[in-house]
Amino acid sequence: MASLSLSDGEEEFGWRITGLGSAFNQANGYVEAGITKYQFTHSSSSISGVVDSVRAPASGGSTSTARRWVGYDPGTYDFWGYTRVKDGTYWPAGSDTVTVDSPAAQRPDDWGWSSVIRAGRPVRISAYEWNQFCNRINDFRLYVGLPEYGAFERAYSGDPITAEIVEHAVYAIRAMDPPVSTPRAPARGDLMRASIFLDLMDSLNSI
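RESULT FIELD:
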């Protein structure tokens, strides 16, 4: 008895019909095989809802046939297999359920400071670069399934790098439980040393 098996994939799935009574070819009377989205359990002279099909080769083959991948929208679906023979009759070939997954989220690129940040030298980061850093943090938060961090305030040219500004970055990264720990959140009046910005970068990039 013919049976249908389906294989999961990202925005696609595969199907395979096995257990045919003879090799799947035209010499044995087969015309095509495929799957339909509508329940199909009895032979019929017609069929609807065909999702995919393959033509039978002239000869050769085996008692199974398959399609490696079929592009499809994410979701969980029931499909029914069928074969069609020369006299026009469609025959059922089992059923199965498949889950088509959404594409996996792409990890954001590692962050790298454009500004020169070295121990013992004054830290000078432009407002534009700091805003971009906050955007990258939010990219990573979305990647791991967290919402964007809403407490970030846009920096403007001439704004000082305060403990509060850096503190938000620490908390926004820490919530993602990075493999490399975040630095200690600075307190009001703390000197913003180069190490804290390098540690923030390393912690974010470890995700």
